[in-house]
Amino acid sequence: MRWLELEGAANARDVGGLPTDDGRQILDHRLLRSDNLQGLTPTDVKLLVEDLGVTSVVDLRSTDEVESEGPGPLVAVQSVRHVHLSVMPEYGQATDAVADALLTRRDRALARFPGDPMCAFYLGYLEDRPDSVVSALRSIGQTPGAALVHCAAGKDRTGVVVALALSAAGTRRDAVIADYAASGNRIGAILARLRASPTYAPDLAKRADDDHRPRAETMSAFLNEVDEQFGGVLPWLSEHGFGEADLAALRAKLLS
User: What is the number of domains present in the chain?
Assistant: First the structure.
């Protein structure tokens, strides 16, 4: 994995280098992923903007999170476009780290996929906010430089959107799953950062640390369910307005 060693983020990496089914690779400095960007230092901003060419940030957090955490340093960079696209229903303190928010949706989620609650929640992103998911992929494809996708922890909401983008570009499924699971290598640092924030700290105490660790089996189950329920990632995207031009732009961005 091509980790980005940032001073103010724990789970940042470039998905460049991942292999595709046709023998190519995802290009470097085209799609980056991260946890919360609130703590970026001037050195981090220089690396992301000047060295890696970030021109777009896709923020998947809820409105409540954005308002609670305040603007991050990249907001002040005029060359960087910010797109806010929550992938969860906009009510209450909905985050992917808040235990209460997850529990209130648990029964509905488990009806989608009883075997894995996190897989069930991921399917909920597709059901509840297909508009945001499609807009996120469209934003990646339309970004002139590197696109940086993030949420709070950089593993669940970001993990799903990046997995869909990589899948649409033809990335090998085992590589998509491995990229998702790689966040588990940084789970201690991720949780430490979240616990330092009043937005997330109270609820993190309600779940064991290992409950937050992404498992390869979860992403495998999610992609299998997308195949079984919708015919695959591409049919689901097409059904929700992600057309041939959008797909061509995404693939050109990540592969050419």
Answer: 1
